[in-house]
Specification:
The protein is an alpha+beta fold. The chain has ten helices and 17 strands. 29% of the residues are buried.
Length: 455
């Protein structure tokens, strides 16, 4: 037990230290690349100016300093050297000789970048040497008809910029990762401490069982029970995790714009699915998605982006979320790859079922996916059935699935009943169909009945 606790502390400290080290290393590399990239852009423009605007006898350095005036900060120094290494022009005073003439010749010949980061009195400096075509040397004396130009004249252009001029706002993604990793390390240390303090007398297996049970209870507390909601809406729920914790989730709560109903299914099972379910559940409650159609669509796209960035490629989630505007007799929804809920009501005296399938793809799989809000009218007595695939994919001993058709038939027959009666009827039918075959997936469904709708 002590070995495991000690290992946990060591891993947490390693995670903490490694995260901080990686952050500073990556931040330094990105800052150097950013400074180099900015300087290279100015050098490329300088070389174009030499070809177009420079006249023999004029200052090449002035062309470069004019170009560098648009930089985020002026260089500490600029040195122009000729092919033999002699200094032709310079501005500022180099505090150190960064490169030898031999290094310049080798790197220019092999077309490799020549740069370094060196200390100075004002902080670390990124120094880079660029080969710049500066025109031609004095014509060779070769006799009549031998041409007007000598050899191409290559300037060794050394530019030094402070590393601190890099834009720190571009480091936000890795800074955010650092905060997450630090929080994870501290959470691990806290968990190890609590385990050592409160559960030292328990065997490892018992401790794990208790933690899973706590996770199950926390997850269950996040989900509402069957309740009579104000505003003339009754809800009945069936929630059966296939394991101790589930990837299915649902919610029902009132907002300023009406009743909100949510159901979703995270890919996979167990703790990873339950953790991602908790993240999505919190995002649903925290976001202002019921304010307008644009808010609903935008928050869905933002949640998709979050999962694409943070969840593993093996994890994604389907979700249906809607808000019921009883004042206008309508349900506004976005279906993100979830089983289309069924809205059952009377049409010319006959039961009619509408599938709510407008929306977009599942969350966390396609970065940049767009989503469209759907709208459907509701009448008094209409029933909305939200369900996960564990319901329609329940199997019997022959491997046959319960299916959407059976579910639609049951709803058409029983939608006039109370939500509790409809729920019990569906659950009894599924159990009779499966014949005792253990469920292979979480089973979740929500029955909502609209008793009054204002025109």
């Amino acid at each position: 037990m002590r070995i495991w606790l000690g290992t946990g502390v060591v891993l947490a400290l390693l995670l903490l230290g490694n995260s901080i080290r990686d952050y500073f290393f990556v931040a330094r590399v990105l800052s150097i690349q950013q400074v180099r990239h900015e300087v290279m852009q100015h050098i490329a423009a300088f070389e174009r100016d030499l070809r177009i605007n420079w006249t023999p006898g004029s200052s090449r350095l002035k062309l470069l300093t004019d170009e560098m005036a648009a930089a985020s900060q002026k260089p500490l120094w600029i040195v122009l050297r000729g092919p033999d290494g002699e200094v032709l022009e310079q501005t500022g005073t180099p505090e150190h000789q960064a490169f030898t003439h031999g290094q310049e010749a080798v790197h220019f010949r092999t077309h490799e970048p020549l740069f370094d980061v060196i200390p100075s009195s004002q902080g670390e400096v990124v120094v880079e040497d660029f080969p710049v075509h500066g025109g031609f040397e004095r014509p060779d004396v070769r006799g009549p008809g031998t041409g007007q130009h000598g050899r191409p004249f290559v300037l060794a252009t050394e530019v030094a910029m402070l590393l601190s001029t890099a834009d720190r706002s571009s480091l936000w993604p890795i800074r955010r990762n650092l905060m997450i990793n630090i929080a994870s390390a501290l959470a691990l240390l806290l968990t190890v401490g609590l385990t050592a303090w409160g559960f030292r007398s328990y065997v490892r297996g018992r401790r794990l069982e208790q933690q899973v049970e706590i996770a199950r209870q926390v997850q269950a507390n996040l989900l509402p029970t069957s309740i009579q909601l104000a505003g003339g809406v009754q809800i009945a729920v069936e929630y059966q995790p296939a394991d101790e914790v589930a990837g299915d989730f649902y919610d029902a709560f009132y907002t300023d714009n009406g009743l909100a109903l949510v159901i979703g299914d995270v890919s996979g099972k167990g703790i990873p699915a339950a953790l991602l379910m908790g993240v999505i559940h919190g995002a649903v409650r925290a976001s202002a998605w019921t304010d307008s159609c644009a808010s609903h669509e935008g928050e869905t796209a933002e949640l998709n982006r979050l999962l694409c960035e943070r969840a593993s490629r093996e994890q994604f989630a389907s979700m249906f979320w809607c808000y019921c505007d009883a004042g206008n007799g309508a349900v506004h929804y976005v279906n993100a790859g979830h089983c289309p809920p069924m809205l059952v009501g009377l049409w010319q005296g006959e039961a009619e079922i509408k599938r709510l399938d407008a929306g977009g793809p599942v969350l966390g799989l396609i970065s940049g996916a767009g989503y469209t809000q759907g709208r459907v009218e509701i009448q008094p007595g209409d029933v909305m059935m939200l369900y996960s695939d564990g319901l329609v994919e329940a199997m019997n001993s022959a491997g046959e699935e319960f299916g959407d058709a059976r579910l639609a038939g049951l709803l058409s027959q029983s939608f006039r009943e109370s939500p509790e009666t409809i729920r019990d009827s569906i659950l009894a039918s599924v159990r009779a169909f499966s014949g005792g075959v253990p469920p292979h997936d979480d089973l979740t469904f929500v029955v909502a009945k609209f008793e009054s709708v204002q025109a």
